[in-house]
Amino acid sequence: MAPTPHPFAVEEPGNIPLPSAPLVRTIAQIRFPHLTQFTINEDAVATGIATALAEQYPLMEVGQEVSVTVTSEGARENRSATRLWRLMSADRAWQISFSGTFLSIDTTNYVHRSDFARRLAEAWEALNRQVSVPYIERLGVRYANQLTDPDHLKRLPELLRPEVLGVSMAQDAEAALVSALSEAQYRFLDGGAFLARWGLLPAGASIDSARPPYSYSTWVLDMDSFHESAPNTQRGENLYEDVRALARRGYQFFRWAVTEEFLLAFGGQQ
Prior knowledge:
Elements: E1 23-31, H1 36-53, E2 59-71, E3 74-88, E4 94-98, E5 102-107, H2 113-130, E6 138-147, H3 150-154, H4 156-159, H5 162-165, E7 180-187, E8 192-201, E9 218-228, H6 239-257, H7 260-265
Helix pairs in contact: 1-2, 2-6
């Protein structure tokens, strides 16, 4: 089989479900300019959205906006004073978050991109029934993967293609590699962009603050596929398809980065 020239050369690599996938979390976020209606009566807007989505997300919390940055020390949270609302499914596997500047969906139970995109589109409709969003500034989909099984970590040369493996196995007892993160950024003709970070995280670090850290190094693959738009050019009319397209780019990179042995190791059936 001829090698794939770059991660996005195969438009549709074909979906192979992985029952034990190392996918820690999947997030999609819509950013928009600050909405006046939130400043005027944010509680009424939030109540309307929560009411519309209560059947799927019966639990609610009010907190502060948090952004997450992945570094060699793990995930770093940056909290702001901005108030936000979180609606959660009964099992807390799905979460809808929103404020006057963004709407997001977050899950630890990702199945496929169609279901993921549908859920975000439904939340977007609920938001716009309460307050009309003039345009979208940024739409992004993020996939965070973490390999933690020691047996899998020993098999990294089998599970990852050489371009991705990098220096991850360049170590021995006298020179143990503590951490090594690589980064790649892509731009596309349609205005979209893609950012991937991958490599070894040191012991005590994690890419998900909700999970306890490990006492040994783990391997991560964190991918962010996004599109930033000029004012008044993206109003979200085709949000479902736009989210699916961004998610597909994440899957393209993932399938390029891993080997067939990786797919088999996590329950994939060829």
